[in-house]
Amino acid sequence: MRLIKISVLVAFLITTLSLVSYAQNTTAIDVQHYKFELTIADNTDTIKGTATISVKFLKHTRSIPLDLGSINSSGKSMQVINVTVGGKITSFEHSNDKLQVQLPVIAKAGDSQIVIIQYKGVPADGLIISKNLFNKRTFFGDNWPNRAHCWLPCNDIPADKASLEFIITAPAHYSIVSNGIQTEQRLLNDSLKLTHWKEDVLLPTKVMVIGAADFAVSDAGYAGTIPVTSWIYNEDKEQGFHDYAKAKDILKYFSTYIGPYGYKKLANVQSKTIFGGMENAGAIFYFEGSVSGNGRVEDLLAHEIAHQWFGDMVTETNFKHLWLSEGFATYLTDVYIESVYGTDSLRHRLIGERNKVIAFAEKSNAPVVDTTSDYMQLLNASSYQKGAWILHMLRNMVGDAVFKNIIREQYKKFAGKNASSEDFIATAEKVSHKKLQSFFKQWLYQPGIPVIAWKYNAVKKNVVITTVQQQKRSFSFPMEFLLVTEKGSFLKTIVVKSRSTIMSFPVKEKLLQVIPDPNCKLLWQQASGQ
Ligand SMILES: [Zn+2]
User: What sign results for the dihedral spanned by CA atoms 334, 338, 343, 345?
Assistant: First the structure.
């Protein structure tokens, strides 16, 4: 996802932190499929649900551990009405956002069961029921990182991916958008409409979604065989259709660069997500203000569309590997912008991203792979911009063609599955035939970036360049210097392997200037006072 203004995020952090920390990882089950039948209404925020969950057991167990919001300080919660397993009513315990469903008989590893949960309540979070900027009532799912359980009984972790369907009964004036394809829509009576969406590809809960609003819907065309649509508030439709139309070309670009798009359609949706954009699979939600009519959201569209490959199809095994989503989406956006607007645009973006990493490193000691259990803390320059810079340095090291093949291979191997940082390192080593462990280890697991003091001395047709790393732990990296002389300029590389490195190069002409990292290839900070 992409962040919106900081003030909004802070307000959001305060209201949701308690929820985020409650969902626990569960490894006893592997959910195969979710069918969520939900009724939403105009006169109440209470939703009524029936969740039919196909579960496979991974070990001997007496109960099915699920996540579902229980009573919290806001007073909003889901109340379970009854639960059946294999068609028989069973007992359950529902507290601390956990729903433990008792099994009639102990399940063995490899067994399967169908559990059906009837429930109702006002979601404390995860499904945003509110009014949009035109004062119209709307419903928008917003599950990241683990807020799905606030309105859906589920195994709310990125590692348990499942197919799903949403069957929504709503007042007939709403248009309903969701993951997958719409298989049915019919009026139940004069005022109620049923809409059925189904996704066969396995999704993590963080990108499962519904949206209900008075949308205007436009066909933006096809990217290959994939239909691309724009879902815009009626009042905003002309501007929105214009702003979101670029999505088709972006989808085409990534389908060529990375590999085939994984889902059957792409809907781009104006919404009430608390993020700038949220990469729900096949149904991306963008913040309301993204619609302006001036078409300035191209890089936001690109970021969320890139997530369809990395984040959605290839999902991090857990949130400590978030850079595999956010660093990838950030850098693939850079690559897309470079393809459309040229190398100078890439360079401009990289400098901006590097500045964000520098600012972050000055106040935080967190590495990219960060084990914090406060997932909201991970929405930082380490996951996004430093992750992107690691990919940029990898690309410089292996070359454009090999880099592209690494990205393609990672997608091919893990599409529909989960991957860790170690999985990506293995892919990069395999495709490049290079040993990359130490490169990744220092950038992913070591906090900070190189802070370099450098100087040069031109003596007797030689230039001596000295670099000194000032940060806590030293890094190894190649660093380019451009030597500008009276008769032209040339590039020299210093391989920095220790805290202080001294190299000398011959110069025939009078040296006018030395420029460090002239091609913006290194994530570094110039020591202060230089
Ligand atoms: Zn993102």
Answer: negative
Q: What is the dihedral of CA 274, 277, 279, 283, to 10 degrees?
A: 90
The CA radius of gyration of the chain, in Å to the nearest whole number, is 26
Question: Closest Cα partner for 420 from 326, 322, 328, 331?
Answer: 322
Rounded to 5 degrees, φ, ψ at 153 are -70, 125
pTM of the model: 0.95
Over residues 130-140, the pLDDT tens digits come to 999 999 999 99
Q: How far apart are CA 374 and CA 378, in angstroms?
A: 7
Q: Are strands 283-287 and 277-278 parallel, antiparallel or unpaired?
A: antiparallel
Cα angle, residue 309 at apex, residues 330 and 9 outer, rounded to 5°:
45
Phi, then psi, of 92 in degrees rounded to 5: -155, 160
pLDDT at res. 516: 98
Using the mean position of ligand 1's atoms as its centre, give its distance from the Cα of residue 3 in Å. Answer: 8
What amino acid occupies position 372? Answer: T
SS3 for 319-347 is HHHCHHHHHHHHHHHHHHHHHHHCHHHHH
Give the pLDDT confidence of 233-285 residue by residue, as tens digits. Answer: 999 999 999 999 999 999 999 999 999 999 999 999 999 999 999 999 999 99
Distance 276 CA to ligand 1 centre (A): 9
> What is Dmax (Cα atoms) for the chain?
92
- Element (H or E) spanning 184, and its range? strand 181-187
What distance in angstroms lies between residue 114's CA and the mean position of ligand 1's atoms? 34
Position 5 scores a pLDDT of 52
| 438 CB-side CA count, 13 A | 7
Ligand 1 center from residue 307 Cα (angstroms)? 7
Cis status of the peptide bond prior to 260, with omega within 30 of 0: no
Instruction: Compute, in angstroms, the gap from residue 365 CA to the centroid of ligand 1.
Output: 22
Tokens representing 100 are 């433990």
C-alpha 429 to ligand 1 mean position (Å): 25
How many Å lie between the centroid of ligand 1 and the Cα of residue 49? Answer: 30
What strand order describes the sheet that includes 175-178?
A: 127-131, 137-141, 210-213, 175-178
